[in-house]
Amino acid sequence: MVVLQVHFLLIPFLMGIMGAAQYLMQDAALLSYIDQRFLSLEKRLEKCNQDVLEYMDEFRDFSRTVLSRLAGLDTDKAQVRSEVENLLSRIDHAQRDIDYFGAVAESNACVEVHEDLVKQQLLEEAEEKKRLKVMLNASCDHVLAGIRSLKIVKKTGGKHGSWMKDPGKKHTKIYLLSGSVNNVILEFANIMIFMENNHTLKARRVLLPLPWEGTGHVIYQGFLFYHRHGSLNEIIKFNIQRRIVADQMLLPGAGRIPAYQLSPQTKVDLAVDEQGLWALHAEPETGGNIVITKINHVTMAVEHSWDTPCSSKGAEAAFMACNTLHVVYNSPSGGTSRIQCVYDVLGALNTHISPGLPFLKRQGSHSAVHYNPKEKQLFAWGDGSQIIYKLHTEEK
C-alpha cells in the first residue's frame, strides 16, 4: 500500500521536471534565432556602409572628370568664338562688295521695277477703297456735331450692364442685359412697360445656353451678338425668338486686353450703325489703340479691319455711327464724359477732337454706350441708370 502511494507522488514530480526542461529548450532555440537575425542585420549594415563609401569615391572621381572637361570646353569655346567672328567679318565684307556690284549692274532695271511696284500698289489701294465704299454703301453724309439732350429713363441694375432696341426690326421692344457676366435677357414689349415700377414681372426672360462677358453686346435683326464668357475672343450669334445659338466666330487679335482702360470688364465691344455689325477691341501690338473690324452679320465673317490712332487709355466706351468710330473718354474717378477721338474708316474724317464733345448735364461714368441708327440716338448705361442721349448732326 505504501509503495502505491510513493508511486503516485513521484509521477507529478517527474512530469514537472520534464516540462521545465522543455521550456528551457524552447528559450534556447529563441535566443539562437535572435542571435542569428542580429548577425544578419550587422552584415547587411556593414555592406551598406561599404557601398556608401564606394559611391562617395566614385562621385568624387566623376566630379573631377566633369570639372576638367568643362575647363577644356571654356578654352575651346573662346577659340571657336574668335574663328566665327573672323568668318562673319569676312562674310560681311564680301556681302558689301556683292551688293555694290549688283547695284551698279542693275540700277536701271531696279528703278523700273520699283516704279511698276508703286503703280501696282496705288492701283490696289484705289481698288480697295472703291470696294470698301461699295461694301459700306457710303451714303452717310452727316457727322456728329454734339449731344443735344439726355433723358434718364430708369435706374435699375448694378454698375455694369447694357440696354437697347433692335435697330434692324420694326418692333418697339426693349432689351435689358444686367451685369458683366450673366445669361438672362429681359425683353419688354415697349419702353413704357420698361419704365414701370414692377417692370420685371412683365418681362419675358430669355436664358442663354452660354453666358456673356462684358457689356459690349448688341441686338440686330433678331439676333443677340455677344462675347462668350470664359473664351478669349469667341463671338456668339444667338437667335432670340428660337432661343438657340445660330453661329459663332473667333475675332482675330481680340480678347487679350480690355477694349477700354476704364471698362476692364469689356474685352470686345460690338456695335451697330447704318452699315451693320462692327467689333471694337484693343491690341498690345497697336500700343493699346483701338482696332475696328467690320463683320458680316449673316455669315459671321470678317470683311475688313482698321488700326485706328484712338487710344484705349482713359477710354470708357465707344460707338460706331455712319462708318465712324467715336471714342468716349473720362477720368478714373468719373466725371464729364467726352468724345475725344473720331475715326472715319473711309478716310473722309480722321482726327482727334479737342477739347472734345461733352456729355452734357451729367457727372459719372458709362459702362456701355450703343448707337441706334434707326432713332439716331445713344442708349447708354451709366452708374446703374439707363440713359438716352439725342444727337445733333451736321452734313460732312
From TrEMBL:
The lineage of its organism: Eukaryota, Metazoa, Chordata, Craniata, Vertebrata. The chain crosses the membrane at residues 6-25. One of its GO terms (biological process) is signal transduction. It comes from the Eukaryota. Its main location: secreted. It comes from Erpornis zantholeuca. The keyword Secreted applies. It holds the Pfam family OLF. This is OLFL1 protein. The gene is Olfml1. Residues 139-395 form the Olfactomedin-like domain. Keywords: Disulfide bond, Membrane, Secreted, Transmembrane, Transmembrane helix. Disulfide bonds join C140-C322. One of its GO terms (cellular component) is extracellular space. The keyword Secreted applies. It is found in: Secreted. InterPro entries: Olfac-like_dom, Olfactomedin-like_domain.
